[in-house]
Amino acid sequence: MADMNPITVWRKLLALPNESRTKTLVMAFLVSAICALGVSGATVILRPIQAANRAAEQQARLEGLIAGIPGMSELLAAEGGSLSTVVVDLTEAKAATEVTPATLSVALEDNANWTGLSEGQDIAGLGQRPDYAQVYFLRGADGEISLALLPISGAGYVGPIDAILALRADMNTIAGLAVLGQSETPGLGGRIEEPAWLSQWRGKEIADASGAVRFAVAKGRASSEFEVDGITGATRTSSAVTRIMRFWLGPDGYGPLIDAIQRGEF
Amino acid sequence: MPARASLWSTLTDPLVHQNPVTLQILGICSALAVTTSVATALTMSAALTAVLVMSAGLISLIRHHIPGSIRLIVQIVIVASLVIVIDQILQAYLFEISQKLSVFVSLITTNCLVLGRTESFSRHNPPGRSMVDALGNGLGYSLVLVVIGSVRELFGAGSLLGLQVFQTVDQGGWFTPLSLMLLAPSAFFLLGGLVWILRTLLPDQTETLELLSPDKPEDLS
User: By C-alpha distance, which of B25, B151, B92 is closest to A44?
Assistant: First the structure.
């Protein structure tokens, strides 16, 4: 009875009146399927190029961060000055021996290289923390660390916030902050990306003489050397930034590493 | 050769006489948002024209087989897919400009201009003519965007396509940039002014009043 030759079936379908239910359903399915193929194809093919673009943008922001800190470009340009990339073991607070920058992404695919955070520890809203982090050290001609760039991340109000914190040689003075990625409300929380807000981070201090982390984004105007101005209308983004900073500078973040650098172990 | 002449007028009519933005006031949301500089206006114009031409061609190809009951959603799905593809291409090859255009490329999907042309023209005409019509409309839209973008960039930043034309005060010149030009309201003023000029020069573009003024009640019969 039914002729299953695909060409005949196709012709029959096309000959159906446009109002017929079968044709409506088949057309709807075909159009969505073809469009889905096109969209997925474009996304998959172009993803590597887009990822490279984003990486280049992050690199540019990192360089912008260094260039924006007074004296750093000269140091980098001067003889002997170099920016080195180091993978550090956050638990041991020393340079990782098995993991290199090239193998870091592979290592982080392994769940064994992540540490789960309990609710009390997880103030940055991360869920778990990688055991290895890629940090950058800028060394002067004498080989001493004069600037450390530490990537930090955490949950913002809308989405994740990724940034790089630059610390001076004393590991207590902030040299600058560069926001690499955020999806906060444009015009409110999104202003954490603005140079005007980021510029006031320079010269702020992290911890007081007793070593307790005091840094915070103020509610309103900054009133001490440990605070930067809050952003009006973006209370939750501001407090998220405070929590991210407190986490990464604390004992579960870079705290041990910072102590080790201050002891001169790097 | 009447066919060629009409094909030519299909292409050129939407540039001024049937301009989709100034006559039909279609697609002005993006026209206001992305015209702070000529570069973004040009990219947006190219993206919209590409989407418009391709969707017109595709929809015209299958025009005899689009069921009436789902025709709008079929058109929107095709347009939306093309927009996503174009957006992905921009993010891959024109990353910086795509960052500036942000959501406005995705919003081409809801640009009335695109659906307006596919619904009113492509559904009733063969692919060649539809694509010529789409190209004409795309170019008409681009023309308006580039004009407004040029004025805004020239007076708002003293430059054109990033090249400094007027030396601004900051750079030691004489020109004080009009910051208003870089804000959204200026695009409203400029577009309004452009429509006004066009309708003064070409009085047949003026719309007939849809509502009568209340002081002539005898005309209501």
Answer: B92
